[in-house]
Amino acid sequence: MSLNKVILIGNVGKDPDVRYFDSGAAIASFPLATSERGYTLANGTVIPERTEWHNIVVRRDLVSFVEKWVKKGSGLYVEGKIRTRNYDDQNGIKRYVTEIHADRIEFYNNGSRPADSSTTQASTNTGNNMTQPVQPNTGYQQGGTTLQSPTAPFSESNEADDLPF
Amino acid sequence: MSLNKVILIGNVGKDPDVRYFDSGAAIASFPLATSERGYTLANGTVIPERTEWHNIVVRRDLVSFVEKWVKKGSGLYVEGKIRTRNYDDQNGIKRYVTEIHADRIEFYNNGSRPADSSTTQASTNTGNNMTQPVQPNTGYQQGGTTLQSPTAPFSESNEADDLPF
Amino acid sequence: MSLNKVILIGNVGKDPDVRYFDSGAAIASFPLATSERGYTLANGTVIPERTEWHNIVVRRDLVSFVEKWVKKGSGLYVEGKIRTRNYDDQNGIKRYVTEIHADRIEFYNNGSRPADSSTTQASTNTGNNMTQPVQPNTGYQQGGTTLQSPTAPFSESNEADDLPF
Amino acid sequence: MSLNKVILIGNVGKDPDVRYFDSGAAIASFPLATSERGYTLANGTVIPERTEWHNIVVRRDLVSFVEKWVKKGSGLYVEGKIRTRNYDDQNGIKRYVTEIHADRIEFYNNGSRPADSSTTQASTNTGNNMTQPVQPNTGYQQGGTTLQSPTAPFSESNEADDLPF
DNA sequence: TTTT
DNA sequence: TTTT
C-alpha cells in the first residue's frame, strides 16, 4: 500500500545534461525551480519570496524529448516520484541527493495557449512524418508497450537505474 | 482503501453564486473552465481546442474567501474531490450532476507573480488588522482562519521555518 | 494555463464493458467506487459512510490491459482527467454524463504487496515473450510514441472521442 | 506560475520526534516509507523491491495531531510540498536535506475502513466534548481546529450537504 | 526505520 | 540556476 507522487510546475534553471551509455540507455537531468511568492504578515513581518530547486531526472523515451525541446527557462509541468540516492563523497562520507524521477513532462505555456493532460499524450504521439513545430505542441510521458523493442530492451533502462546519478 | 482527489487549474466562468442558510451554513458555487489546446495530426486532421467546464462547490470557511475574491475570469488552482448528486427533475426523472467539492483554492497568477501551495495558507490567514490588498496574495483552504489569533500569531510559525530542523 | 487531473483509488463495481469499432479503435468503461467512511459528530449526529461512483473510460492501449486484467472487485489506482459529455435522451432533453478518462491504471494491492508509480511502468512494459502472471504485477498507462502505427492510426482513437459514451 | 505538490501513501518508520519552542511554535518530524514492489523482467533479471524513505516535517496545528495519533508503523496519507534546506556539517561542508512539509495527513486504513479526503476534515475537527476514539476516525490538515466552535458546529456544515445545490 |  |  504505497504511493509516491510528485507534481511540479516551474522553470528550468539550465539546459538539460544528457548522457548516453554503451548499453543504449540514456539519462537527462536538469534543475527545475518552483517559487512561493513572498508576503507580509499582519504584524508587518515580511516573508520573502522563496525558490525551491528540484533535481529532475529523466530516463528512457523521455530523454530524447527533453534533449530536443527542454531549454533553460522552459516552463514545465513535471509528474514523477521522489527518489533519494546516496554516494560516498571524496572524504568517504555518505551523502544523499534527492531527485524527482519524471514520468511525464509537458510544456506549460509561456504566456500563450493552455495545456491539458489529455492533449499532451495526443500531440506527443506524433513526431514521425509530421513537420515538427519550433516548439512542441505539448509534452511527453513514460510508458507505452512498444518500448520493449529489440533496439531498446527494457532491461537496459533499468540497469541505468543503478547508475550513480 | 480509497482516494478521491481532483486538481484543477483554470478560469472562472462567472461570478460565484453564494447562498446562506438559516443554520449558519453557507455554500458558494461557480463554473471553472479547463482547456486542452487543439493540435493537428500528422495526417492533417485538426483536433480543435476543447474546453471542459467543472461545477465547483465550496463550503464552510472557504465560502467567504470565494465571495470576497473570486470573480468571473479569475485564474484559480482548485483541489477537491468529485461528488455526484442526483435529484428528480420536473418530469420526475432522476438526473445527475457531478461537482467538484473544493478543499483548497488558490489564485493562480494572472500574468504576474508565482503561487505555491505553502504561501497560500500563510497569506490567507489574514482578515484581521491587516490592510487588505486589492487582490489576495494567495488563496485559501478548508480550515484555519483562526491561526492568526493573538495566542498563535502567524509570525511565530514562520520563525520556526528557520530552525535547523 | 490549465490542468485537469484526477487521482482515484477504489474498487471496480462490475466487469468492464469493452467495445471495438470498425476503425480499429476500442473503448472500455467500468464503474469505480471510492468511499468515505462514516463518523459520529461530537453532538451525536451520525454521518454514514458514503460511496461515490465514478465512470471510468479507457481508450487506446489501455483497453487491452483493462479487458485482460480488470474485474469486478479489482482494487485500482486510476489517474486521468474529468470529461463531461452530453447527449439527448429519449425525450429530446439534453443530459450530461461526467466521466473520468484514464491515462494510467494500476492494480492497488488487495491486501498483499505494495504498489508504486514507478514499478508500474516497468513491469507493464513487458508482456512479450514473458510468461504472464495470473494477476499483473502492476498496471498500465497511456502514452508511447509507437502507438501511431499504421494499424492503429492516431486519428481513429480521436474519432472515438466523439462517440456518445 | 508554480506548483510544488507531493502525495504519499506509506508507513511511518519510527515514532515522531516532536519539539516545542519558546515562541510557542512546534514541529514534528518522522520518516515515511513508500515501497515499489520488485518484479522480474522478461530476460530473467530480477528487480528487487525498493523502499524510499521520506522525511516528513509537520508544523502548526498538525503537530498536536501527529503527536497524539501517529506512531511507528502507522499507515499514512500525506500531502505536502518538497523543501530542501542546507546546513554546514561538522567539517564546515554544506549539506542538503530534502524534506516533505506536510499540509495534510490522514490515516490510511490498516486493513479496515476506507479513508477519503472529505471525511478527513470532518472527523478531524473534533477535540471538544467528544469522547476520543483509540484511533482517530481520520486525519488532519493544516488549519481548522476551530471550526467546531459553538457558532459554527460541524453538524451544520453537513446538513448543508443535503441541500439541493 | 515501516509495511506487504 | 529559472521564472514573475
TrEMBL record, chains A, B, C, D:
Residues 109-157 have a biased composition (Polar residues). The keyword Manganese does not apply. Residues 108-165 are annotated as: Disordered. InterPro entries: NA-bd_OB-fold, Primosome_PriB/ssb, ssDNA-bd. One of its GO terms (molecular function) is DNA binding. PROSITE patterns: SSB. Keywords: DNA-binding. CDD domains: SSB_OBF. NCBIfam families: ssb. Homotetramer. This is Single-stranded DNA-binding protein. It comes from Parabacteroides absconsus.
